[in-house]
Write a structure and sequence with these properties.
With 336 residues, the protein is α/β, with parallel strands linked by helices. The protein is 45% helix and 19% strand. The model has no long low-confidence stretch (mean pLDDT 97). The structure holds adenosine-5'-triphosphate, magnesium ion and fe (iii) ion. Residues 10-12, 302 line the site of magnesium ion. Residues 23-308 form the Gcp-like domain.
């Protein structure tokens, strides 16, 4: 089964053709990063307008890269939430129009289900059940993937998402937007033990995360340096901040693996492309005999291939949508 998938929930306009949930025939991503950089973050109204300009060429390119015509795909999938409402609406309207014109099934996909499913693409042997740590720009979720399309959320962040923390710290140290990759690169030059930043915890909730205290600690540190007239070692700040994030993520994930007796762990979302996070999990999983799965960086950040993968398993579970499908900006994982 070949699915044409569309993703437009934030600032990437993306289309892909995916066969049977695991084989990517094409994947096209048009990023708007250069446009939003000058504003220091994603401007929703600009994102929507750019999606409208980009979506048809991106879909045409995805079909042509896959060497297929629209007639030769079997279903149309689209992210319908969560995300920016105006941005989501562009993809949803486009997918509905194509589904109507071609009389093919329409499958609305949860964006985070897409991030999780990115793991199926390069790991042909990965099957549920497993534990997945979702760390993206807007989400930090520790999830049991019980079966395809069946999720139990064990914990989530009480305040900032991991990606949000990376982006805010990047801005504070003057690295600009998007911050994650820049902090990652700069941290490689720094000492992760140079500054003792707090490890956020939520008392009584062993699987929940908190990053706002860490963010404040970084800001306080920078302010104190400024007041004392001391020069800031930005590489040390990045490395020490990142070390705190790594500790929080690793400790929660392994608490869940131990408590629930799972031996398989996956990570997903844009922050999952962070090099320190990946290497910490690789070595910890090796030590503890846990199988570890993670997508290539290009499949961690927003793309449509992951949506095509999730859509295939949704379709196999009997899920299709009517032409009344709407964008749901705050859609919860597991909700339809
Ligand atoms: P969500 O998926 O929660 O709706 P989103 O789609 O905006 O949010 P993603 O595309 O999954 O988020 O990921 C983008 C986030 O990942 C940004 O916050 C970015 O800074 C972060 N990120 C990307 N690469 C890295 C990296 N190497 N290290 C740390 N963070 C990173
Ligand atoms: Mg993005
Ligand atoms: Fe995302």
């Amino acid at each position: 089964m070949k699915i044409l998938a569309i993703e437009s929930s934030c600032d990437e306009t993306a289309a892909a053709v995916v066969e049977d949930g695991r084989k990517v025939l094409s994947s096209v991503i048009s990023s708007q990063i250069s446009i939003h950089t000058k504003f220091g973050g994603v401007v929703p109204e600009i994102a929507s307008r750019k999606h409208i300009e980009n979506i048809n060429p991106v879909i045409r390119q995805a079909l042509s890269d896959a060497n297929l015509t629209l007639d030769e795909v079997d279903a149309i999938a689209v992210t319908y939430g969560p995300g920016l409402v105006g941005a989501l609406l562009v993809g949803v309207a486009e997918a509905k129009a194509i589904a109507y014109a071609t009389n093919k099934p329409l499958i609305g996909v949860h964006h985070i289900e897409g991030h999780i499913s990115a793991n199926y693409i390069e790991n042909q042997d990965l099957e549920p059940p497993f534990i997945c740590l979702v760390v993206s720009g807007g989400h930090t979720h520790l999830v049991v993937v019980k079966d395809y399309g069946e999720y139990e959320i064990l914990g989530k962040t009480r305040d900032d998402a991991a990606g949000e923390a990376f982006d805010k710290v990047a801005r504070a140290v003057g690295l600009g937007y998007p911050g994650g990759p820049k902090v990652d690169a700069m941290a490689k030059e720094g000492n992760p033990h140079a500054i003792e930043f707090p490890r956020g915890a939520v008392s009584g909730s062993p699987y929940d995360f908190s990053f706002s205290g860490l963010k404040s600690a970084v800001l306080n540190y920078l302010n104190q340096c400024e007041m004392k007239g001391e020069e800031v070692n930005r590489a040390d700040v990045c490395a020490s901040f990142q070390a705190s994030v790594v500790d929080s993520l690793v400790s929660r994930a392994f608490a869940a693996l131990d408590d629930f007796g799972y031996k398989k762990l996956a990570i997903a979302g844009g922050v999952a492309s962070n090099s320190a996070i990946r290497s910490a999990f690789i070595s910890e999983c090796e030590k503890k005999g846990v199988e570890f799965y993670y997508p290539s960086p290009i499949l961690c950040t927003d793309n449509a291939a992951m949506i095509g993968s999730a859509a295939y398993y949704d379709y196999k579970n009997g899920i299709t949508h009517g032409l009344d499908l709407n964008a749901v900006p705050n859609l919860k994982l597991g909700e339809r």
